[in-house]
Amino acid sequence: MKILIVEDNDDLREIIVRSLEKERYVAETAACYADARTKAFVYEYDCILLDIMLPDGNGLELLRELHAAGRRVNVIILSAKDSIEDKVKGLELGADDYLPKPFHLAELHARIKSVLRRQMRGGEQAIRIANVTIHPDTFGVDVGGKPLELSRKEYDIMLYLVNRQGRLIEKQPLAEAVWGDDIDQADNFDFIYAQMKNLRKRLKAAGAGIEIKTVYGFGYKLVET
């Protein structure tokens, strides 16, 4: 899961980054409106943590732009402006939650999980496809009720594809989601192949009822077998 942190306070931004990385999120950052806008329109994120008061603009305006462009992304507003007006504006513009500063990191983590669970899993704790169950809160995977051991990258790839079951996923957005935005500067995406090969091998050996198909020249698609 990849999260964009839009926050101009260097210390708070770093604290949030470190806490999210401990929770195994891929954390990207923007310290101003201009950078946040560029990243939000160039890359894909599972969630944006958005401060309202930025040195060169207002976070609510970014929400307006995303909404106008049809860019659907989970947004949690983080702001010291704890007013009813700001909350209402943010929610009307498409924000999924509002957390006033100061806040506890444990609450932030809980709200992120809640937003992602509602959007991707209809509120369910686990994801079930065929005989495969993924437990995002514990990073576990079961096949037919038996635990399946995966490396971190294998798990991250699988979770990304499972949340987009049946959709054609190109290599670049997959790589950015698992390795971070800077991976778009790589000469090629050969590093994905080894991870994908191992993941497929583990799923097949475990008798999983899902398969990751290669769509040559484009990317991958996860389907039931």
From TrEMBL:
InterPro entries: CheY-like_superfamily, OmpR/PhoB-type_DNA-bd, Sig_transdc_resp-reg_receiver, WalR-like, WH-like_DNA-bd_sf. GO terms for cellular component: cytosol; protein-DNA complex. GO terms for molecular function: phosphorelay response regulator activity; transcription cis-regulatory region binding. It comes from Marseilla massiliensis. One of its GO terms (biological process) is regulation of DNA-templated transcription. It comes from the Bacteria. Transmembrane segments: none annotated. Residues 124-224 bind DNA. Keywords: DNA-binding, Phosphoprotein, Transcription, Transcription regulation, Two-component regulatory system. Residues 2-116 form the Response regulatory domain. This is Response regulator transcription factor. The modification 4-aspartylphosphate is found at D51.
